[in-house]
Design brief:
globular, single chain, 6-stranded mixed β-sheet, 3 domains, 37% helix, 23 strands
Amino acid sequence: MGMELNMISTNSPAPFPPATKIPSGYRVDANGLWVKRGDKEDSWQQVASTPVWVEAIGRDGNAEDWSVAVGHKNPDGDIHRLIVSYGDIIAKGSSLVQDVSGRGLLVLPMAEMFFRDFLAKSVAMAELPRFRLSRQLGFTPMSDGRMAFVMPNRTITSQAEGGGQETVAFRPQFENAAFLAYTMAGESQDWHDHVAPLMANRVFRLGIYLGLAAPFMEPAGLDNVLMHFVGQTTAGKTAWLQMIGSLFGCGSDPQHTSKATLVERWNATKNALELYTATHSGVFLLVDELGSNEEELLSAYNVTAGRGKARMDKLGGMRQQLRWTLYILSTGEIRITDKIEESTRKRPKGGSIIRAMDFNFDKLSDWGEMTSEERDRVVRAAKHAFGETTYGHLGPEFVQAVLDTYPTEAALRIALREEVEVRHAQLCAAAREHGYELLPPHVRAIRRLALVAVVGNWARDFLGMTPEQVDADVQAAALTWLEELPPLDEGDRIVAQVRDYVIRYQGQIINYDNSTSPVLPAQTRAIAHKDWVLFTESGFAEACEGTPPKVAAKALAAKGILHREAGKLTSRHVLTRLGLPRAPYYAVILKRLLPDDELHLVGGDVAEDGPDDGDDASDELDQQLGDFPRL
């Protein structure tokens, strides 16, 4: 494990620790760390030329990856903390000394052994404070039930009395200069002054709601999504992203700065995009200028998958996969669906359309009576402020207020999910009133906007908004998204229905190949076997949600998603362990129904052998299933 630079708390450490915190045989003074090499007074040997001490010991939520918080004062007189893996302290040949020296903790060339010994003996001292490691930013539960919000340089928890003493330290999967962008500058009121004229425009109000809502995605139980805003060159899209970035840190324009910024650009490889998503996991990913991406295969599934590609290490083992949970907010002059079609030369599938939501920035933007000169002046001033003079205030202030209201993990999750259900029903009802037919994937996607409505309302006092204004803004976004959707043909609609059913009921689709149980559990809806999801007639009818099974089967077969025997819409399979002889099933090909990153949810191992031959056994199947929802 590598060494990371992280703050454990917002409290400034004391210049030097009490003498009782230093192991016997060592001393720390203004000139550094010393070790006693003999009995004489002058037998002290210098180990480091900068003061250093151990402050706490930590571990992750699984009581693994034990690490040490090391405090030190660098040659400039600044006090910092480093999070160091305990394994690196005791491992011969590790790069520990080189790593800490690069951060200003200067160990003498011949004293590495004593430096490691000092750290290990400090850890062994009684009553050393404990902390918990977090691998990603944003909300993380604590051992005492409280919820914390982790940032690279601080951890936010409820300020109410009665909380535990445990703190949380951020230790990312890898180092990235972008973490330095999560910082503050200027005063909160100055930020509000620059935002005030922008808040007259609905699309900028939506940007604030989206930016504040994004970190609440995981506690609300929602999946990753790419929300892409399309507009003309002079529409203010980059300023919009900069404003969102300034909620939690520096929002400099990435095209015109060399400093760390929370706004990224699309002109990156697929591997770089994985690093972007993992870096900002738990908060949001802001990406500007979609048109600048020239990757041959841009996939909505890749950037919203939640985990990177599996790769082998030098020794033939598997590297730790990058993982992320976040809203991706993107801008450009081309729709994401058009970009996918351009790069793949195929029309985007329904799953891509739902995972990557296109919004028309120009239709949502309205500057009212403001002249173009006034608009340009306001935008220029705001862009400068968000990247140079005032940023990083509202996001932490709002999170603090939320955690003071809902201090525990359970309280926050319950409040979010209950209110999301209400807003979701309202948004779906509004869409239907405007004449839109909502298929299951549409309903699922609108839930993400329901979260935006909930958090926007929670933040309205910070923004000077009314509940009616927030709800109207989010409803306008939902209707604009629906308007931008390309029409689905009948086959796409049926595929989307079946795909949504399989994902929705993944826990009730039994994996025959990985199970040893001879009995089907109650509420079984289908069986995953080899490369297929097997449905009976009644189960398939339920999955098709009103479409006649034969009509749906023909549509799936036309798209190459249904395995069938010659002249039939079904194929026969035997499930010996369940006591089910050969019987006909609608065999949906799992790897063609779901993207690669979702195959693990329901499917067994992919196999090449075909279905088994034999006679129908529908009666025996019905008898075993009894009154349970039938396969």
